[in-house]
Write a structure and sequence with these properties.
five-stranded antiparallel β-sheet; globular; 24% helix
């Protein structure tokens, strides 16, 4: 069976609190682990997308509306829907590992790091489709 979920692949969450949100696969575990004996992936996604901005808005309002609220999660493959898109984030691959899920402070640090990477990507204007909420 071909590997569908490679690092950098964009997927959509189908079940749970973040259902309908876009995520990027950071690490895939096709065989599972001792704690999680099912195929799963470590993903980073956007919980709250940036809001629409216009030319007449001031710098402070523009900065506030351009914020991204990310999340990191371990998700079963059966709750993910792969897309044909991939996202190139070099710093993202090393930012989250399985160890970060054991300690809440490490998880927060990883989330802050991902927030910084996502906001940089949004400000440059690359991958605009990733930072827009799904319409369904």
């Amino acid at each position: 069976m071909p590997k569908v979920y490679k690092p950098g692949k964009v997927a959509i969450v189908l079940q749970g609190r973040q259902a309908g949100k876009k995520v990027v696969v950071i690490k895939q575990l096709d065989e599972g682990t001792k704690e999680r004996p099912y195929p799963h992936a470590i993903v980073a996604g956007i919980e709250r997308y940036p809001r629409k901005v216009t030319r007449t808005m001031g710098a402070k309002k523009l900065q506030r509306r351009s914020r991204v609220k990310p999340f990191i999660k371990v998700i079963n493959y059966s709750h993910l829907f792969p897309t044909r898109y991939a996202l190139e984030l070099e710093g993202l691959k090393n930012s989250v590992t399985a160890d970060h899920f054991k300690e809440p402070s490490q998880r927060d640090d990883a989330r802050k790091n991902i927030k910084k990477l996502f906001e940089e990507r949004y400000q440059t204007g690359k991958n605009k489709w990733f930072f827009q909420a799904l319409r369904f």
